[in-house]
Amino acid sequence: MEQKQQEKEDEESMVCSLSNELNPCPICLGPVKQEAYLDRCFHKFCYNCIARWAKYVAGSHSQAQFTLKCPYCKSDNISIVYECEDDNFQRHYINKDPVERTFFSKAHKFRLRCYYCEPGAIYDKFNVQRFWKLHRYLQPNKWLQVWLQREIQALTQEEDVNVVVYHILGSIESFTRQKEREPSKRTIEENREDFRALISDAAKPFLIGRTKRFVNEIELFLVSGLNIEAYDEVYWQCVEMVTSGAVHEDDEERLQEVNKQPPYLHFFDEDSDKE
């Protein structure tokens, strides 16, 4: 057992090392040390590199700056996220004290943390092809709006995200109406690509660097057919498989919270499996 564990750790170390070589820090061009991210575009840097960059930019302006332009993509960000471990992380705000976000729950923190780590085995849990083949995308999902609100809140760390949520919901409804009118004009894969492109166009102005991952996440949530609590539980278990494998106090709390929630609920009817 110890030998297998050591081999697993060595393999993970090699993967991490290769990843750092292929994705160097955009500032020093070397392997990323102490990973840090800008909160809006999600570009990754060495913490010391981006902290020094923020200090340099602040010193070059006569007035205090409360945003920081990403040196890679030039988008505006309000903080640096670092020391990411499980669903905990530290934040350094640009020239202002952290604002207490009372709406930002443990569930928000968990979902935000999901965007900073590999999704693990979650893609193996649900049958994406079956979802599109059986035209389940035409069926309404009564949990989607609430899930979207929490997701956008977690990614933008803003409470009032109704405009963004309704914009994305409107895009999905437009897609559904179009496919209902023209059910046989596109292949399964073409329908899927149409949906992903539409969501990407709607979300990109708000989510920038995390748009592609967000499109994957919204598709997975719809494909799952689960309510929010059940989906979180499945996702949490998959993320745990990829991380340390150790159970912390916060994890135990989360398990207890999840177990109090209703059991798995599906929005698909039994008949819908039949072609």
UniProtKB/TrEMBL annotation:
One of its GO terms (molecular function) is zinc ion binding. SMART domains: RING (SM00184). It holds the Pfam family zf-C3HC4. Coiled coil: none annotated. PROSITE patterns: ZF_RING_1 (PS00518), ZF_RING_2 (PS50089). This is Ring zinc finger family protein. It comes from Thalictrum thalictroides (Rue-anemone). Gene3D superfamilies: Zinc/RING finger domain, C3HC4 (zinc finger) (3.30.40.10). Keywords: Metal-binding, Zinc, Zinc-finger. Residues 25-74 form the RING-type domain.
